[in-house]
Amino acid sequence: MTQMLAANASWFNFTAQSGDFGVYAFSGFEEVCKPYEFSIELVSRSANVDLTALLGTPACLSIADRSGGERLVHGLIREMEQLHTANRFTHYRCSLVPRLWFLGQIRDHRIFQNLSVVEIIQRILKEQGFTADGSSFKLSYSYEPREYCVQYGETDLHFITRLCEEEGIYFYFEHNRDSHCLCFCDREGGPKIPGQSDLRFFPGSGQRSDTAVINRLTLHEQVNSNAAAYREWNFRKPRLDLEVRDKEEDKQAAPAPPGMLLEQYAYPHLYQLRKPGERYAKLQLSRQLTFRQWIDCTSDVARFLPSYVFSIDDHPRAALNGRWWVVTVRHEGQQPGVLEHEAPDGRGLHYASRVAAIPEMTRFIPALEHPKNLVLDKQTTHVTGPKGEEIYPDKYGRVKVQFHWDREGQYNEKTSCWVRASQEWAGGKYGTMAIPRIGHEVVVSFLEGDPDRPLITGRVYHELNMPPYELPAHKTRTVFKSMSTPGKENEARGFNEFRVEDKKGQEEIYVHAEKDVNAHVKNDWKEHILHDRHRTVDNFTYTLTKGETHETLKQPRKTELFANDNRTVHADSHTKVDGKWLGKAGTEIHLEGGLKIVLEAGAELTLKAGGSWLTINGAGVSADGAAVCLNSGGGPGDGTPAVPLLPEGSLSPPVPPPPTIHCLAYAYKNAACVCEICNKNQ
User: Fold this and answer.
1) Phi/psi of residue 452, nearest 5 degrees
2) Structural domain that includes position 238
3) Is 399 contained in some domain?
4) What is the pLDDT of residue 484?
5) Model pTM score
6) Which of 104, 212, 330, 332 is deepest in the core (most CB within 10 A)?
7) What is the mean pLDDT of residues 182-204?
8) Helical (H) or strand (E) element with 665
9) pLDDT confidence of residue 669
């Protein structure tokens, strides 16, 4: 109910930087974790108040109550209205809000890296002119830095509030006549309301109290979820179990139907290790139980403030006589007497407040009322890195990127967190790897739509990075083409390329290696060429075959050497020619056998030199020459010995000397008087 007050005093007053105003009426609403707002109807003897000059300036509303206390509401004027004029007074309406409210008029897209939520909030407040005494942090927990935190299309107010909700931090305001302070807190309990904080329960039954009292009270008790669970996944620790849970076992603290577990489960969350996850689960359970029990009461006490504590006395339900923590306050007041003789008849000064409060020892965790803005679809972005680098990954193949909406990034290695890049195949030490390079435009998806969780899922060309072949002229080509790195901008670069041409009648697989090609085949390599094979080697060809080589040619073989032909056979060499074997040397043919040389012909053997000849056939042995000498002295002619060159880099062992013991055995068997090897060594 509304408690009527004496009308012979000015209980509500308003001061501003300019203008002389009286307070005719006001209403206001305050809540933990929200900016307050008071709508104040003012009267002035001037009909020409400069409304624009008042916008954004500080002002203070003071409210007195029956207990002799005073409540101050300091803020900034966000709106002024000029209403009606009646006789001597002009009515105005003023909207009074905290400095924090104006952060709701600032919307941004920006990235914070390696900062805790406290540091992020402090940075934003400092950027928006909050002085050192304009905010305070009364925190008991040390908050870990967040590797990557994005404000994506959120107002500064929404963003700050969301961070507080996620971490279990609440904020409220402290008021002075000349200033107000934004306070952040994560502790249980709070300070007592100004003045007398023990309030008597005095229900409205036609009686009057000489002091401010609570005149109506409603107790609310309800069933809430009694368990909280989260699950996460950490790609750095894929085997780490990151499912966490917390449950309230006390049936009084969290009543539930028999046999039921009222669990709230969510995936994903903010943590990557179990310990932080367990903390978040506890926060969520406390959040669910914050309003398990609460009271709603009306009063003529003006000194209620969110997050402050008051006590109740004299309530017939003993459990309610205790300390309560204020969550919301609604104020209403009217002071017709400010109009003097123009005041309407029968209407006196009055004030009423309505309060919602929870037990002091119930930890208040703000509800998750400010969700993160989701990225509803993919975006493109540019890969970035430090100056002088062309490829800049970490050990996971992650890269840095700069989004098109990022106004603060400098296109360097600090523009974003490390962003994972999707590959066609990713297994344990196997798969594909094509690391996006600095300057490339890539397609980024966001896991669960979360701007804090970017993932590169594609790559696209643009005007500066055009496809490797002109399109649509070469639309039938499928290409994998790289570029040599590092190099200077706009200079010609080498490249490796694998290209597939699917144009009818011109089908082709093309391979280009800027330097080397290395192939390692652990078993067979088979090729089947239905037409020709062409190979051009501008330098050397090296071949090492550790097993046998089998080669079958079903058509003529044509070989042309423009230099020497060197061949070394460390065992036997067999050649069989079914037709003719023809050989021609321009100067000399020298055949040497370590033991013997046998020339065998089925019909005839002929030796010709210098006009002389020797023929052996079935008719006998015929010789013709200027002279035929037998056992008449002289000596054999010398030939050029064979000294074949071994291939460079050969892995073959050195050839051992001829086996002397075999030569001796041969000499003994054939009754030779000397050993050829021994004779040569003399």
Assistant:
1) -80, -5
2) 227-251+262-289
3) yes
4) 93
5) 0.83
6) 212
7) 92
8) helix 660-669
9) 56
